[in-house]
Amino acid sequence: MIYADNAATTRLDDEALNAMLPYLREQYGNASQPYSFSRSAKKALKDARETIASCINANPEQILFTSCGTESDNWVVKGLALSHSTSWRVAVSEIEHHAILNPCKQLEEIGYKVDYIPVDKNGLIDLQCAENIKSDLVSVMFANNEIGTIQPIKDLCRVAHENGALFHTDAVQALGHVHVEVKDLDVDFLSASAHKFNGPKGIGFLYAKDPSLLNAFICGGGQESGLRAGTENVASIVGMSVALKKNCEEIDVNKKHLMMLEEVFLNALNASGVDFIRNGAEERIPGNISLSFKDCEGEALLHLLDLNGICVSTGSACDSKNTQVSHVLKAIGLDEEYAKGTIRISLGKNNNVAEVQKIADVLIRSVGKMNL
Ligand code: PLP
Fold first, then answer.
1. How far is 124 from 144, CA to CA, in rounded Å?
2. How far is CA 318 from CA 182, 263, 288, 294, in A?
3. What is the DSSP string of 4-63?
4. Which end of the chain is least crowded, N or C, by CB within 10 Å?
C-alpha cells in the first residue's frame, strides 16, 4: 500500500503513541480530581499545554483543547456569533473547509449575514476585496486542504484589524508543516487538529489570544477554564503535544524531502506528455499536489490508483463521496473539462522516491486508458 493522502489524515507517530500509552493504562486518573493518583495526569496536561504553546509562540493559557479542528472552527464562527445579536457579521473565504462554511450556513438560516471573499485562479484571497469588507469576524484558512494554497495571513489579519474585525485562521492543514507563530501573525484565533500532524484522531485545540472573548460552546464541568467542558482526553492531548513538537522541529528537513519528491513526481508526469494542470499558488503546503487531467474522471482515477494499492483523494477527502466539482475548484474558476479530472496527492514525510515513481507510472497509465 502506498499512502498518499496525508491531507486527509496522517500516520500516528510512534513516539506520540508511546507517550500516550501510560495515560491509557496505569495513569488513567481524571485530571480534574484533587487526589495524588491524578497528579501525573494533571501534570501531563500542563506540560502538553506548555509544549503546544511554545510550538506556536503562544502562552499556555491561550491553548484550549477541543475534540478536533471542526469543533475549534465551529466554536469561533458559531460560538462568537451566537453570543452576539444577528447584527454580528462574519466574513470567510469562498474556499474554506466545510467546518467553517456549514456553521456559516446555519448562521445565515437564523438571520446572520455572512460575506464570502473571492479568490483568484491560484486560490489566493483578493486583498483589495478583503479591505472593503466590513465585518466583526474574518475567518480565512491558513492553507487550503484541496489545493494547498497558503494565504498571506499576516496581511489579511492586519487588514481585518484595521477594519475593526477579529481574525481567525483555520490552520488545520498548516500546523506542523509550515512555521506558524501566532504572535507574529497577530491572529485572534487559530484552529488546529492533531491527526493532520501525525498525532491521534479526535483531538485538537483552539488558540485564543484573549480567551475571555469566548463563551463556553460546550457547557458542563469547569474544564479548560470553564470554556470547554468534558473530562480531558489526557492521552490524546499528550500524543498531540509530542507529535506537534516533533513535526515543528522537523519542518525544514521534511519540506526539503517533500520538495524533492514533488520534483521527481512532476518530472515523470511532464516527461509523459499527459495533459494536466497543477492547482494552487506558488506557496503551498509541501507535498500537496492537486492535479487536474483533461477529459478524465477524478473518481475513476482514484479507483484505478486504489486497484494498485495507492491511496489518494479527489478534491477533499471529507467530501470524497461527492463526485461534483468541489466548491474550491469552482471558486478558482477551473475549466470543467479539467476540473472533473482532479485528484489530490498529498505526500507525507514517510513517503519515498520509489513510491512517487510508482504513483506517477500508474497515474500516467490510468490517464492514458481514460483518454483512449
Ligand atoms: N479544516 C481543514 C482545512 C481541514 O482540512 C479539515 C479536515 O480535513 C478540518 C478543518 C477538520 O478537521 P478535523 O478532521 O480535525 O475535524
1. 10
2. 27, 27, 16, 24
3. -BTTT--PPPHHHHHHHHHHHTT----TT--SGGGHHHHHHHHHHHHHHHHHTT--GGGE
4. C
What is the model's pLDDT at position 178?
98
Residue 277 C-alpha cell reads as 494542470
Atom of ligand 1 nearest to the CA of 317: 8
| 318 Cβ closer than 6 Å to some ligand 1 atom | yes
Contacts of 250 (CB under 8 A, 6+ apart): 349
CA of 173 to the centre of ligand 1 (A): 7
Of 128-132, 175-179, 221-225, the range with the lowest mean pLDDT is: 128-132
Rounded-to-integer distance, Cα 247 and Cα 193, Å: 13
Q: How far is CA 19 from the centre of its chain?
A: 24
Residues 203, 88: Cα–Cα separation, whole Å: 29
Pocket test for ligand 1, best of 5, 70, 95 (most atoms within 8 A of CB): 70
Mean pLDDT of 234-247: 98
Please, are residues 299 and 314 in contact by the beta-carbon 8 Å criterion?
A: yes
Span from the CA of 8 to the centroid of ligand 1 (angstroms):
8
- Kindly give the number of the ligand 1 atom that is closest to the alpha carbon of 99: 10
| Residue written as grid cell 469562498 | 94
Report how far residue 79's alpha carbon sits from residue 332's, in angstroms, rounded to the nearest whole number.
Answer: 29
Say which amino acid occupies 360: A
CA–centroid distance, 175 to ligand 1, in Å, is 12
Q: Taking each helix axis from N to C terminus, what angle separates 234-249 and 251-272, rounded to the nearest 10 degrees? A: 70
Kindly give the distance from the C-alpha atom of residue 71 to the centroid of ligand 1, in angstroms, as a whole number: 9
Whose C-alpha lies nearest to ligand 1, atom 12?
69
Q: How many residues does the chain have?
A: 372
